[in-house]
TrEMBL record:
Cell compartment(s), UniProt: Cytoplasm
A Pfam family it matches: DAP_epimerase
Annotated Gene Ontology cellular component terms: cytosol
Site (Important for dimerization): Y271
Protein name: Diaminopimelate epimerase
Lineage of producing organism: Bacteria, Pseudomonadati, Pseudomonadota, Gammaproteobacteria, Cellvibrionales
UniProt GO MF annotations: diaminopimelate epimerase activity
InterPro entries to which the protein is assigned, alphabetical: DAP_epimerase_AS (IPR018510), DAP_epimerase_DapF (IPR001653)
Pathway where it operates: Amino-acid biosynthesis; L-lysine biosynthesis via DAP pathway; DL-2,6-diaminopimelate from LL-2,6-diaminopimelate: step 1/1
SUPFAM superfamilies for this protein: Diaminopimelate epimerase-like (SSF54506)
HAMAP family linked to this entry: DAP_epimerase (MF_00197)
Gene Ontology BP terms: lysine biosynthetic process via diaminopimelate
Residues reported to bind substrate: N13, Q46, N66, G76, N77, N160, N193, E211, R212, G221, T222
Length: 277
């Protein structure tokens, strides 16, 4: 059989876009892992799947799988890419898509940047999920079972779980060392995306993200939202916040608790491909 896909990226966070509204392909772990392999397959950080909408007033369903095959709740860079992907075939510029954790509103702007209403962030431990008696802006997390060393983290969810660590320099941040430890920390029962953020000024931060199920990526849209939001609450950041990631910059707007967080940034087509299986 021939499987049609499109390679895209959001600031270097790269995707395999599969439109199952137009073809019938069974998604198995074996297939996802084979496709994500950067040496034997196509290679990607996430697989983005479009499926027919299951509710009225929605344009399509949007599912996300990490390179390790895990299905997850949200992908911000991916949302911008599926908006431009859907625009290419429909001519529409505004979409409502359903995800595992709710509805997203996507708008392709005249300059081909994409604006996404990413949902309402939560700090409730049970909704992240994160093991804690009460919600707090920061937690002192023992890094190892011996409790010898602790690290101060913020914990919140943008549909998907995020830990935020503030550092003096993202360039010198221990991403490779602490990323995997925090990603699989027992206090995050579903694992977690780990952001290392540096405050530049009240409207700018630098950010590197060790993503759950992938490792460090060039950019992370939900991670940018999580760091900007946490920074507005604890680092004196003021909306809008420009988040500088290794792959480029995203703009994050947020007006406070209970409000949608809005992300704006690019989405890029790389090529259309076919796999024969
Ligand atoms: N690794 C994430 C999913 C992709 C998020 C990221 N690529 C984005 O742009 O938000 C997770 O396991 O929740």
């Amino acid at each position: 059989m021939t499987i049609r896909f499109t390679k895209m990226h959001g600031l270097g966070n790269d995707f395999f876009v599969l439109d199952l509204r137009a073809q019938d392909v069974e998604l198995t772990s074996e297939r996802i892992l084979a496709w994500s392999d950067r040496h034997r397959g196509v290679g990607f950080d996430q697989l983005l799947v479009l499926e027919p909408a299951t509710q009225t007033g929605v344009d399509f369903k949007y599912r996300i799988f990490n390179a390790d095959g895990s299905e997850v709740e949200h992908c911000g860079n991916g949302a911008r890419c599926v908006a431009r992907f859907a625009q290419r075939s429909s001519g529409q510029s505004d979409f409502v898509c359903e995800t595992a954790r709710g509805l997203l509103t996507l708008s392709v702007l005249d300059d081909q940047q994409v604006k996404v209403a990413m949902g309402i962030p939560t700090f409730k431990p049970s909704e992240i999920p994160f093991v804690a008696d009460d919600a707090a802006l920061n937690y002192n997390l023992p890094l190892y079972p011996d409790q010898a060393s602790q690290i101060k983290v913020g914990a919140l969810a943008i549909g998907n779980p995020h830990a935020v660590v503030w550092v003096s320099s993202t360039a010198a941040a221990p991403v490779e060392e602490l990323g995997p430890i925090l990603e699989s920390h027992p206090r995050f029962p579903n694992r977690v995306n780990v952001g290392f953020a540096e405050r530049v000024d009240e409207h700018e931060i630098n950010l590197r993200v060790f993503e759950r199920g992938v490792g460090e990526t060039e950019a992370c849209g939900t991670g940018a939202c999580a760091a900007a939001i946490h920074g507005m609450l604890t680092q004196g950041l003021v909306s809008p916040v420009s988040v500088h990631l290794p792959g480029g910059t995203l703009q994050i707007d947020w007006q406070g608790m209970g409000e949608q967080v809005i992300m704006t940034g690019p989405a890029t087509f790389v090529y259309d491909g076919e796999l024969s299986e």
